[in-house]
UniProtKB/TrEMBL annotation:
Residues 25-69 are annotated as: Disordered. Residues 159-344 form the VWFA domain. It comes from the Bacteria. Pfam families: VWA_2. This is VWA domain-containing protein. Transmembrane segments: none annotated. InterPro entries: VWF_A, vWFA_dom_sf. Residues 28-38 have a biased composition (Low complexity). Residues 39-69 have a biased composition (Polar residues).
Amino acid sequence: MIRNSIFIVLTMIVFLAGCNNEPEKNASNTQTTSSTQSPSDLNQSKESAENSPENDSNTQPSSDSNQSKNQIVLTDEQILMKPPGRFAGSSYDDQNVQEALDQLPTSLTSDQYMEELLLLLAEDYRPYVTTFINFESEITVNIPRPNEKITLPANKKLHISILLDASGSMQAKIQGKSKMDSAKEAIQSFGDKLPKNAEVSLRVYGHKGSGSQEDKELSCSSTEEIFHGQGKQTDQIKTALQDVEPVGWTPIANALESVKQDIDPETTDSVVYVVSDGIETCGGDPVQVARELNQSKVKTIVNIIGFDVGDEGQKMLRQVAASGGGEFTSIDNDEALKNYLNKAYERLRGEWTRWIEKGTGAANIQKEEKQGALNKTRETMQLLANQENSNLLGALQYLKTKKENDFPWSEIFKKINERKNFAWSYADETGRRLFNEVSQNGKQVYDDIKDEGDQNIDDLTDKNNN
């Protein structure tokens, strides 16, 4: 009885031991099968495993599966950005290439041969592909767009000073209107048309005291800037002029001297318009001050508008204008004053016309430069593809003479030509696409500047005629 019990226990131990070894056998058999199965059998096994209930989300994928999933398809740029072969470009040498070809294994597939050939002879496309990748097809002209008023180029800082004579003689009337009222209207109209980003200063002189001898010192020392701002703010000039009354003497030199403190040191162009109906009456030397302004660091042009001035006064005021590098203009009525200021405005509008010419010219130059760079990159890359193709075909011909009949010559030949077509077409299509983008962008910028500029000038012409 005891012997039977011992036999039963031993039998169970052996049985259990056999069961524990079964998974190892199965694993071993599976590994062996995997190593001997064909690709199609492996795919079937993979599909079966994937469809198996045991293959749930918690199952760890095999390394083969990971490799399959991690395969990366290279973009055209990535393919062409690979390093060049050992004998690319100026390093090419027939003898060295042939010696390297002689060292290749005797039995390679067409893909392997192609890979070896590229390691030797692939040309360096990286500079050209990089140019295409980083190419900016946008056309940018850094000139401010026009608005309701003229806008000067950003690098041009214009200061316009208007000096208004407020001496007592400006009370006199011409055709029923005081010279002061006519001057105020003309200055306001002129201000409305100034470049919106110009710096504008309006200064009056002789507006304090009276024309009496007792008030001469006060009046001759009176010069005051009543407006200082941008051209877009000149609607405030009318308010600034409201309380100005013609009462005193005529300190032209003092007023011109005060202009120096009104001009920003960063100003590039400065123009002064002096509206006066008489000569200096305060003992100053306006000729000398005008010369100093014209010869200063910020060269200032001094123009004199003689409003109903006699012959003697005109002679002196002409000297002031000549010393200031400007011009003297004699005005005998309020319409003439407005017309003169409109002509001055026309000269400023010429800045706008040149602005348009500069903007459209810059757009064209930039477009042509970009297109030229694209054409050069495209053509150079295509020439390189042709050269690479010639070198690869030469190497293939050499291999053909050295190999047995089973050498996959036609397959390699096809791959070499596909390589050339691929590189050549990439350069052609990419270069032409970017070329067209540049053309469209350049035309758009040109048209924007031209259309807006012409419309703005038309609007200003209408204002000038009204």
